[in-house]
Design brief:
The protein has 441 residues and is α/β, with parallel strands linked by helices. It has 15 helices and twelve strands.
Length: 441
């Protein structure tokens, strides 16, 4: 039957005024791609009331165009793909964010059965409770548990899975004694430097926070950490004390073992510059000479950077300079150590140090020199050609700009092209200097 002639209804068909006039048609099976069956398996769990109509519309097209299911640019296929992905995400979130709480003698346990039962509350975005039931049965096979949701609740007694109607949040317990132990442990291991609030909210929306005991602690732990950090910065700046916050951080970074790069490098190459610098430059990683000297940008790329800063009117002594990765990554070729580009894992491992440097220095403007530095600052791959010359905002706040790494200028073989690129680099730095001047008055 043509899709436009079909009325789809989920639930009680008796509510359909036209149900008594419906005719029965002979079923004529036909083959469909396996990918459609897999797609439909997820889409039917979506909350969109049009899901059945959309699937049927695609089904009718597949009879004549079986390959259409592979055309992900097709608007209908793309929409169904997005619905399926939303369901998969919801299934994952339920598995990640359900928290069981022990109830000694809940009303849900049969009379006379005093065994402990574990109850959880969850608010799914789609119809995923039945689809997820098997996972929880396998994962918690030896527990008596119930998962309560607004539309449907499921219960496991160790042998049989049953269903009941939806519940209210108040039907689930608020906590149990084990949670207090867990909260104490969580607070002791909490590292505020690793918390990215924007990312956390994206992956774990606030509606799930009330299900998890540890999330109630996060705001207070963050506030306390910020107060400690502010005090550390102030103590480091008062009276010219040599043991500043940066000094302490530098000493800690000297023993960094966050990734394997420390094994081949001579030493950690930490950032340098004034603790109140209005401008911070972030490069990729130390090179051979930097690794030996223990200072950033002292080799050929550093000399090119110094030249560009001078022509742009920027005093390097008033700039804090560091790298996205603090250890030299290289390949040994004979007696030479050849630069090797850091991987995403190595960049991520070093972000903690860069976040701390930025928190202490609090620059008005941060500049990423090259793609690696940009990835470190923004937490994702950035295209220099697209973002260069634009005023950008960092995920955790603060103004940033992106330009090339000075080592790029050293690799250009054509003399005329090299001069043009260098001029653009100096122009970028001059524009950044004007911006810093505006912000600092």
């Amino acid at each position: 039957m043509p899709p436009e002639e079909v009325i789809w209804q989920a639930g009680d068909a008796s509510a359909d005024l036209f149900a008594e006039d419906a005719s029965l048609f002979e079923v004529q099976p036909f083959p469909v791609p396996r990918a459609f069956v897999e797609l439909a398996h997820n889409v039917v769990c979506h909350s969109d009331p049009e899901r059945f109509a959309l699937l049927y519309a695609l089904l009718t097209k597949l009879r004549a165009q079986p390959a259409l299911i592979q055309d992900h640019a097709n608007p209908l296929v793309r929409r169904l793909d997005e619905m399926a992905e939303a369901v998969r995400r919801d299934i994952h979130k339920m598995r990640a964010f359900v928290r069981f709480r022990e109830v000694a003698t809940p009303s849900l346990v049969e009379e006379g059965n005093k065994d402990s039962r574990y109850v959880a509350w969850f608010e799914p975005g789609h119809h995923i409770v039945r689809a997820n039931a098997g996972f929880f049965v396998r994962r918690f096979a030896n527990m008596n548990w119930s998962i309560l949701t607004p539309e449907l609740s499921i219960h496991w007694d160790g042998e049989t899975l049953t269903e009941s109607e939806g519940a209210a949040k108040g039907d689930a317990p608020d906590g149990d004694p084990v949670e207090e132990v867990w909260k104490t442990y969580y607070a002791s291991i909490f590292n505020p430097a690793r918390v990215k609030v924007g990312t956390m909210l994206k992956e774990m929306p606030k509606k799930y926070w009330k299900n998890m005991p540890e999330t109630a602690l996060v705001p207070g732990l963050l506030a306390a950490a910020q107060a400690r950090e502010t005090g550390m910065v102030k103590r480091g700046r008062i009276g010219g004390n040599s043991h500043t916050a940066l000094d302490a951080l530098r000493e800690e970074a000297a023993g960094c073992r966050r990734c394997p790069l420390y094994k081949g490098a001579t030493q950690t190459v930490f950032g340098e510059g004034p603790a109140d610098a209005p401008l911070m430059l972030v490069g990729e990683q130390p090179g051979d000479q930097e690794d030996l000297a223990g200072r950033p940008f002292v080799g050929p790329a550093g000399q090119k950077l110094d030249q560009g800063l001078a022509e742009a009117g920027i005093d390097r002594d008033r700039v804090y300079i560091t790298n996205a990765v603090k250890h030299f990554k290289f390949e040994q070729r004979g007696k030479r150590r050849i630069h090797s580009k850091p991987g995403a894992g190595e960049i991520e491992a070093c972000r903690w140090w860069n976040d701390q440097e930025r928190a202490i220095v609090a620059p008005k403007v941060t500049v990423a020199l090259g793609a690696t530095a940009a990835r470190s600052l923004f937490g994702r791959a950035m295209t220099i050609g697209h973002s260069r010359g634009q005023q950008l905002e960092l995920p955790e706040g603060g103004e940033a700009w992106i330009t090339i790494h000075p080592s790029f200028l050293l690799r250009i073989q054509d003399h005329g092209e090299a001069e043009d690129e260098y001029s653009r680099f100096v122009a970028d730095l001059a524009m950044i200097r004007k911006r810093v001047t505006t912000l600092t008055g």
